[in-house]
Amino acid sequence: MEKTRLLYEGKAKKVYATENPETVIVSYKDDATAFNGLKKGSISGKGVINNRMSNLLMAMLEKNGVPTHLVEELSERDTLVKKVQIVPLEVIVRNISAGSFAKRYGVEEGIVFDEPTFEFSYKNDALGDPLINETHALALKLATKEEIARIRDLALKTNQLLKDYFSERGVILVDFKLEFGRLSDGSIVLADEISPDTCRFWDAKTREKLDKDRFRRDLGNVEDAYIEMMRRVSGKENEQ
Ligand code: UDP
């Protein structure tokens, strides 16, 4: 499948049309942003890692009953995916307090929750992706009640599957952001990406951060953290 024309360029990815109206090609860049685009930079090799990792995780989820947009990895940075209409909600699931949760409620990072939390942000850069509740999302017609229920089920199922998957690889899944899309038949699938850009990962032994927080907070060794996460996901940690 070939790229025909550029449809959209986002912060970390480009999206191209293909000859098939039902598919698009996503191309992962090394560009990184944080704090609603205020902090800009580049993480060398990130696009290659995020492309591979996201595809491995989506394939695992698909196998376990979570429908995704994934069709086929085309190259180091390019993946063929089903064309979707993105539901403009960032779906955030948390297992441990961190980031904006810790800040908003004035608590430390690292509180382990008895049950995962679930929240939406309204995907709107001009407004800075504000927190939004279900009734507001319905009022704004961002999704239907049925779609929201489906998204919630799929997000919580994804959390359980990812938590177990990473735990087997010595990684704590702290929190993550998902995006869902509608296929042409209206059904909901997991879209966008799952990577160290969109998840918080802590090493289970040392609690070292292995994700984009290293970039956000200028902690150094950003590239190494992405490489280490890729190594864990590839299962290479057991090879001598
Ligand atoms: N996240 C993301 N994109 C965003 C906002 C958050 O991928 O625009 C991810 C982030 O990496 C983390 C989770 O969602 O894994 C929860 O982020 P939080 O709400 O704590 O916001 P942040 O501190 O990242 O601004």
From TrEMBL:
Residues 6-232 form the SAICAR synthetase/ADE2 N-terminal domain. PROSITE patterns: SAICAR_SYNTHETASE_1 (PS01057), SAICAR_SYNTHETASE_2 (PS01058). Its EC number is 6.3.2.6. Pathway: Purine metabolism; IMP biosynthesis via de novo pathway; 5-amino-1-(5-phospho-D-ribosyl)imidazole-4-carboxamide from 5-amino-1-(5-phospho-D-ribosyl)imidazole-4-carboxylate: step 1/2. SUPFAM superfamilies: SAICAR synthase-like (SSF56104). It catalyses: 5-amino-1-(5-phospho-D-ribosyl)imidazole-4-carboxylate + L-aspartate + ATP = (2S)-2-[5-amino-1-(5-phospho-beta-D-ribosyl)imidazole-4-carboxamido]succinate + ADP + phosphate + 2 H(+). It is an enzyme of class 6 (ligase). Belongs to the SAICAR synthetase family. This is Phosphoribosylaminoimidazole-succinocarboxamide synthase.
